[in-house]
Structures are given as structure tokens and as C-alpha cells.
Design goal:
heterodimer; A: mainly alpha; Cytochrome-c3 Hydrogenase, chain B; 3-stranded antiparallel beta sheet; globular; B: 164 residues; mainly alpha; Rossmann fold; 3-stranded parallel beta sheet; 7 helices
Chain lengths: 409, 164
């Protein structure tokens, strides 16, 4: 096991200001074990009294080697890794990866599978924002928010369990469609959720949006202007809170998002409170999408009929020799993908989640790289916390909504 | 015959000191607020409204290792995090217990590679392993109750040997 080494101030010379070397300012370590860093992020802070003058994020405490591991697996099996990437958004990661595979091998997806994917990914977006809202509440000492948010999140996880048998790491979205059709109880479960949830959002808003204690700790903090945001590659609710109308679901529609009527909430303040408001509105927009997708959920197959890429149903294996061969070949050898590299991106709850996938003609990818939104959103943190108090840093960090699994991979 | 019979009406229970100490330890175990990865979310869910782990005297998550006596290693431990985890464990006061929550913490899980410890027992001694990727909150609660059973059976003699 590697040992922790004592470091001297000399090693940080290039990162901190001159005043730190003379001891005029204080260097403070926040993390990797800290209740407000949302995981194992370490922030090295240079403080002048209570004011942050420098913030240096130190990442890699959760480096998992997911990208490297995926190179050793076939295209279907590598998908299991993507669930664990951004663990608040497993369905969205599945979708991003699967869309890349489909683009690489040119595989069709039936419309019913597309609609199911949209419903589940939007539910996942709500679940992810709920965890975010709950932890923002915890960070700002509003304990009840955490309890309320997790109550609704359980309802979404129950729906996931209904369709896939797993609560979090579902791997339900597969290349060419979804694992299997949704059960008959699915529609009722989602409709129940649609009925209850708008009232719950109102409840959250009554608790927080106009609450002076909450507003005082959020307004005017961590202002991110458009130019900085764009130069750092910030995406997602953070970018939209800074006044840029950029949502991949609208600007580069995929999975039939163009047929749904929804708004992209955009605010111009760019502060912590604006980011909070954008996410609160996204709850309602996601509900709209789910309702429309559910209303016109088409009938039909839920995965592609292309047997070279999608395993045949169990019922066929017993009666068809070809089906048995396909099944055997797919699960032992996998399917080959052309020697090409493609990039495909989806809008995750945190921003643009892109997958660069390079095939080498065989059944395993040559290289997989994830362009994860949290990584870029965290990069801008040092810019927006300068000059704020340490206590406000917690609120700003919470509003960035980072997931360490997403950053370190 | 004996003291029980004489004091029976007075609402007095006699037991051994060991039992009292172990009983009190189980019913107010403070876990450390320490999440690593995916399992941390399920650990939060176990603390939250639906599963409510405070039924078992564990509502108080402590952010400081100095105030906690149970470490729930929730998630994968990377090579960079290992030394930090060990330092946190060393900072916890005796007696202390460790639950390895999830497959990654128990045995490396799906991540058999250069970056992840193949089981947190390479870094700290583990009392209870909870399987699942991630384990359901019920599974974590079961793990905690299993730990309680273990704690209830602890002998002072063994503790003295263990901690010196």
C-alpha cells in the first residue's frame, strides 16, 4: 500500500500565492473525507481569514480505471461498467454508451424502445436531481429536504426495479433496444408518480425557494459569467443558469426528443440560486416529457431484429438452430465493430455526457473515452469561489452538482 | 435460588458486565459519514425516510472519525484512497468495527484492474461483508444487525488481547 507522504509548502509553490509561503495566508485541506464534498474530492484552500483566495481541486481519489477495463470486454459486457461511472445517472450512462455502439455498428432502434428509453432516462434525471436537492439541503442544514427527496426517489427506484430487477445499476438499455419489454404494471406505476410528483415539487418550493434562510445563503454566490462558462466547457444546468440556451435534447435531438414538447429553462443570473431554480424547473419539464412519451407509447418490438447484434428471445432458442448459433456467438465472442471512431453525446442531469468509441474491427473496443460533465463543471470551481467565505464554498460546490465517479472514472 | 429470587419483585435484572457493555454498544453505534461511490447513495437511502436506520440506533452519522465507532466502507477503494482510508481508521477510537458494503469493498467487484483494491480488507480489518452491487438498503441493515450479533458475543478477554 502506498504511504501518505508529508509534503512541504515548497511543492505547492506554483499553485498558491506568494503570501502562503510566508505564512500570511493559511492552507486548509477540505476532504477527501468531508461531508460537503459529495464524495471523495479534496480541495486545497488558501484562506485569508475566512475568505477563499485560492481553491485547488485534487481529484483521482475514486479513479476506477473504467475506460481501461472496458477495452478488455466485448461491447455488450462493457456496458456494465458504464452504470458505475456516474452513479446518480446509470440509465443515462447506459444510453450514452449504447447510442455510441449503435452509431458505430449502424444498428436500428425500434420506436417503442426509444420511447421507453426516454421515459426511464427522464425518470433518472428526476432521481438524480432529487439526490442533489437532498444533499444541498443537508449542506445548508435543511435536514427535512433530504428525507422528503429520498421518499420520492424510492418511488422512482421502485419503477426501475419493476422493469429491470435492480434498483440502481440496471443495465436495462441495451444495444439495439432495451433488455425486455416493460411489464404491464409499468404504466400505472409511472402514472402514479406523475400524479404525485408535481405536488411534491410545490412542497419543496414552499420549503426552499422563498425561504429567507435558504435564499440568503444562495443568492449572489459563485457567479459564473457566460464567457468563463463557455471557455471551460461547462454544460448542463450550470451553463443554462448562466444564460446559454444549450440542451442537447433540443439542439441535437436523439431518441425522438424532437417530438416532445418541453422547454429548456434558462436564467441569466449565473449564481448558485439560479442553478437551483433551473434544476427545479427541470423537474417539471422532465415530467412533461415523461407524460407525453407515456401517452403515445407505441406498440411493437423493443429491440432490433438484427440478430447479428441483438440476442434472440429465449423462446426461439429451443426451436431454431440459427437462433441458438446467434445466441452462442453473441455471448461468447460478441459482435465485431468496424475500425472507426465515433463520438456521441446525450444530455445527462449534469450536462453533456459524451462517449468516444473507437472500434478495431474486432468484438472489443480499442479505446473508450467518456467526456463527463462533472469534470468540466468542477474545473470552473476555482474561478467562481474566489473571494467567497469558506461557508459559502459549501453552497457553491453543492450547486455545481458534481459526482466523483463521473470525474475520476 | 439467589439474588434474582430475592430481588424479583423490585424490577432488578442481574446480568454480567460484559452483556451490559455489549448491549449498550450495539444500541448506539455511530457510523462515520463516509461515502466513496455508488454504495454511498444506497447508504444514504438506508438512512432516509423509507428505510430509516435510526430504528437501530444509528441515526447519528458523524463526519469526524474521532466520534464514530463504525466505518461503513461504501464503495470502491482506489489506490489513491487506500492510505487515506487507513488514516481515518487509525483515527477512530477503540473499540471500532468495519462493514465492507458492496462487492467493490468486499472483493473488488467488477473492477479487477490496476486502480482498485481487491477488497478493502487489504487496508483495514473487516467485520461484516455485505454483498450486492450496490446492496439494497435492507441488505445494509441486515449487515448492521449481523454486526450487532457479533458485538453481543464479544468477550472482554478477547478485546484485551486485541487492543493490548
Amino acid at each position: 500500500m502506498t504511504q501518505i507522504e508529508e509534503v512541504s509548502i515548497e511543492q505547492f509553490k506554483h499553485l498558491v500565492s506568494e503570501r502562503a509561503l510566508t505564512g500570511e495566508t493559511m492552507l486548509l485541506n477540505m476532504g477527501p473525507q468531508h461531508p460537503s464534498t459529495h464524495g471523495v474530492l479534496r480541495l486545497l484552500l488558501e484562506l485569508d481569514g475566512e475568505t477563499v483566495i485560492n481553491c485547488i481541486p485534487d481529484i483521482g481519489y475514486l479513479h476506477t480505471g473504467i475506460e481501461k477495463n472496458m477495452e478488455a470486454k466485448t461491447y455488450q459486457k462493457a456496458e456494465v461498467m458504464t452504470d458505475r461511472l456516474d452513479y446518480m445517472n446509470p440509465m443515462g450512462n447506459n444510453l450514452a454508451y449504447v447510442m455510441a455502439v449503435e452509431k458505430l455498428v449502424d444498428l436500428d432502434v425500434p420506436v417503442r424502445a426509444q420511447a421507453i428509453r426516454v421515459i426511464l432516462v427522464e425518470l433518472q434525471r428526476i432521481a438524480s436531481h432529487l439526490v442533489w436537492l437532498g444533499s444541498v439541503g443537508l449542506d445548508l442544514a435543511a435536514m427535512s429536504m433530504f428525507l422528503y427527496c429520498f421518499r420520492e426517489r424510492e418511488q422512482i427506484l421502485d419503477i426501475f426495479e419493476l422493469v429491470s430487477g435492480q434498483r440502481m445499476m440496471t443495465t436495462y438499455i441495451r444495444p439495439g433496444g432495451v433488455w425486455r419489454d416493460v411489464p404491464v404494471e409499468f404504466e400505472k406505476a409511472v402514472r402514479d408518480f406523475l400524479k404525485i410528483f408535481p405536488k411534491r415539487i410545490d412542497e419543496y418550493e414552499t420549503l426552499l425557494t422563498k425561504n429567507p434562510l435558504f435564499v440568503d445563503r444562495m443568492v449572489g454566490l459563485g457567479i459564473l459569467d457566460v464567457k468563463t462558462a463557455l471557455s471551460y466547457g461547462v454544460t448542463g444546468p450550470m451553463l443554462r443558469a448562466s444564460g446559454v440556451n444549450w440542451d442537447l435534447r433540443k439542439s441535437r435531438p436523439y431518441m425522438g426528443y424532437e417530438q416532445y414538447d418541453f422547454n429548456v429553462p434558462v436564467l441569466t443570473e449565473g449564481d448558485t440560486y439560479a442553478r437551483y431554480l433551473v434544476r427545479m424547473q427541470e423537474f417539471r419539464e422532465s415530467l412533461k416529457i415523461i407524460e407525453q412519451a407515456l401517452n403515445k407509447l407505441p406498440f411493437g418490438p423493443v429491440h432490433s431484429e438484427n440478430r447479428k447484434f441483438v440476442p434472440p428471445p429465449r423462446s426461439e432458442i429451443g426451436v431454431s438452430m440459427e437462433a441458438l448459433i446467434h445466441h452462442f456467438k453473441l455471448w461468447t465472442e460478441g459482435f465485431p465493430a468496424p475500425d472507426a471512431s465515433i463520438y456521441s453525446a446525450v444530455e445527462s442531469p449534469r450536462g453533456e455526457l459524451g462517449v468516444l468509441l473507437a472500434g478495431d474491427g474486432g468484438p472489443k473496443p480499442r479505446r473508450v473515452h467518456m467526456r463527463t460533465p462533472s469534470f468540466d463543471n468542477l474545473a470552473v470551481l476555482p474561478e467562481i469561489v474566489k473571494g467567497h467565505l469558506v461557508a459559502d464554498l459549501v453552497a457553491i460546490l453543492a450547486s455545481v452538482d458534481i459526482v466523483l465517479g463521473d470525474i475520476d472514472r | 435460588m439467589g439474588v434474582e429470587q430475592k430481588l424479583g419483585d423490585m424490577g432488578v435484572v442481574t446480568t454480567t458486565l460484559e452483556n451490559v457493555v455489549n448491549w449498550s454498544r450495539t444500541n448506539a453505534m455511530w457510523p462515520m459519514l463516509f461515502g466513496l461511490a455508488c454504495c454511498a447513495i444506497e447508504m444514504m437511502a438506508a438512512q432516509a425516510s423509507n428505510y430509516d436506520m435510526s430504528r437501530f440506533g444509528m441515526e447519528l452519522m458523524r463526519a469526524s472519525p474521532r466520534q464514530s465507532d463504525l466505518m461503513i466502507v461504501a464503495g470502491r477503494v482506489s489506490k489513491k484512497m487506500g492510505p487515506v482510508l487507513r488514516r481515518l481508521y487509525d483515527q477512530m477510537p477503540e473499540p471500532k468495527w468495519v462493514i465492507a458494503m458492496g462487492d467493490c469493498a468486499s472483493c473488488g467487484g467488477v473492477f479487477n484492474n490496476y486502480a482498485i483494491f481487491q477488497g478493502v480488507d487489504e487496508v483495514v480489518p473487516v467485520d461484516v461483508y455485505v454483498a450486492g452491487c450496490p446492496p439494497r438498503p435492507e441488505a445494509l441493515i441486515h449487515g448492521v444487525l449481523t454486526l450487532y450479533e457479533k458485538v453481543k458475543g464479544e468477550k472482554f478477554k478477547d478485546l484485551a488481547e486485541k487492543y493490548g
